[in-house]
Automatic annotation (TrEMBL):
It is found in: Cell membrane; Membrane. The keyword Disulfide bond does not apply. Pfam families: SecY (PF00344). This is Protein translocase subunit SecY. GO terms for cellular component: plasma membrane. It is a multi-pass membrane protein. Belongs to the SecY/SEC61-alpha family. It comes from Streptomonospora alba. Keywords: Cell membrane, Membrane, Protein transport, Translocation, Transmembrane, Transmembrane helix, Transport.
């Protein structure tokens, strides 16, 4: 593998792509530690560990994960990539129900360009709304659950300062979106995925350090070994796929013979990726956000119910709800992203068929049957991986810094594998061996 890295940097165009990607990621991480105007980030950092211990599974934990810790420091890039992820999910869902968007999706590159433009506009709108809500909660002390006095990190609360913070955070989101597009066009890998990967990995060393300080040496060693086995299992599942063989019949076009080739349709076990976990987490944050806006009222039965079962994140009802939401969203997302009827029609149009299955409706039914059988273990796998940090938190009393499991490990493994494959493709174009042998 070391030789493959050396060959990658010896290839001029690939070296330039890698260096450009590293440069953008470095600038991105710098923006995550620069505080917004009017924010005293030093005061936040002094008491941040105590706050996070109180908010291990609170309202903004996932947002803080996707911002690489920038949210709880109210930095320029405090919103991270989350507004773009939310906008992309909304646009994908609307594509199924809005005929105009569905028509644009079928127009090819020009239509995809318009959909991308709509995604950008929606991202900016969500960034303004999200930054406004974060500033409002920070101004009232709700963001840090009242653990840090507002006057220590936001001494000036005049309207001009608050508007400046909102504009700065929204502009930071627009800049992050531009960074992701630059990496995709001129660098290596998917830009948005790499930015998410960077924010997650940024918190990994501190989590390991904290765990080493809190646990005994032998416990820390066992956790590390278990983490390596877990990573190997995630890699195995992420790489697993069911290959549906497809045969194309020979056909005469003019004087030339086309077809007669065989290929396959790769259906992954985890066809939905990380999206169901984000869906389920976002939905479960709604009652917690409602509590933050309503305040703590002892006479409110709804508030008491949410406080009892949905705030700690380790209650069995919360974990069961989270688990079943992930399973439901996995089936839902696969259903809207992979259309067996459309795939069967395209195969029939170009003379393709699955051996032993008649073209048309029988092919669509067969693909739907196989996809359902694959999605079932894939959704269970996602649910179990997402519950690992909660189980560790409830069983061992560990802090939220438990680094193995949940959304973070899925992102690290998935994006890492995808980036390595893209680098391999560049190397194999020059008859070099790749990283994975």
């Amino acid at each position: 593998m070391l030789g493959a890295f050396i060959r990658a940097f010896r290839t001029p165009d690939l070296r330039n792509k890698l260096l450009f990607t590293l440069f953008i990621l470095t600038v991105f991480r710098l923006g995550a530690v620069i505080p917004a105007p009017g924010i005293n980030s030093a005061a936040i950092r002094e008491q941040l560990e105590a706050v996070q211990a109180q908010d291990s599974t609170g309202v903004f934990t996932l947002l803080n994960l996707f911002s690489g810790g920038a949210l709880f420091q109210l930095a320029v890039f405090a919103l991270g990539i989350m507004p773009y992820i939310t906008a992309s999910i909304i646009i994908n869902l609307l594509t199924v129900v809005v005929p105009r968007l569905e028509a644009l999706k079928k127009e090819g590159q020009s239509g995809q360009g318009k959909i991308t433009q709509y995604t950008r506009y929606l991202t900016l709108l969500l960034a303004v709304l999200q930054s406004s809500s974060i500033v409002a909660m920070a101004r009232t002390g709700q963001l840090f659950q009242g653990q840090i006095p507002v006057s220590t990190y936001m001494p000036n609360q005049d309207p001009l300062t608050l508007v400046t913070i909102v504009i700065t955070m929204s502009a930071g989101t627009a800049l992050i979106m531009w960074f992701g597009e630059l990496i995709t066009e001129r660098g290596v890998g998917n830009g948005m995925s790499l930015l998410i990967f960077t924010t997650v990995v940024a918190g990994f060393p501190s989590a390991m350090t904290t765990m080493f300080q809190e646990q005994e040496a032998w416990v820390f060693g066992i956790i590390c070994v278990a983490g390596l086995f877990l990573i190997a299992g995630v890699v195995f599942i992420e790489q697993a796929q069911r290959r549906i063989p497809v045969q194309y019949a020979k056909r005469m076009v003019g004087r030339r013979m086309y077809g007669g080739s065989s290929t396959y349709i790769p259906l992954k076990v985890n066809q939905a990726g990380i999206i169901p976990v984000i869906f389920a987490s976002s939905l479960l944050y709604l009652p917690q956000l409602a509590i933050g806006l309503m305040g703590q009222d002892a006479d409110n039965p709804v508030a008491n119910f949410i406080n009892s079962y949905f705030i700690s994140g380790t209650h069995p009802i919360y974990m069961a709800t989270f688990f079943f939401l992930i399973i439901g969203f996995a089936f839902f997302y696969v259903a809207i992203t992979f259309n067996p009827a459309e795939v069967a029609d395209n195969m029939k149009k170009y003379g393709g068929f699955i051996p032993g299955i008649r073209p048309g409706r029988p092919t669509a039914e067969y693909l739907d049957y196989v996809l359902t059988r694959l999605t079932t273990p894939g959704s269970l796998y996602l649910g179990l991986i997402a519950l690992l940090p909660m189980v560790a938190l409830g069983a061992s009393g560990a802090t939220q810094n438990f680094p193995f499991g949940g959304t973070s490990i899925l992102i690290m493994v998935g994006v890492g594998l995808d980036t390595v494959k893209q680098i391999e493709s560049h190397l194999q174009q020059r008859n070099y061996e790749g990283f994975l042998r």
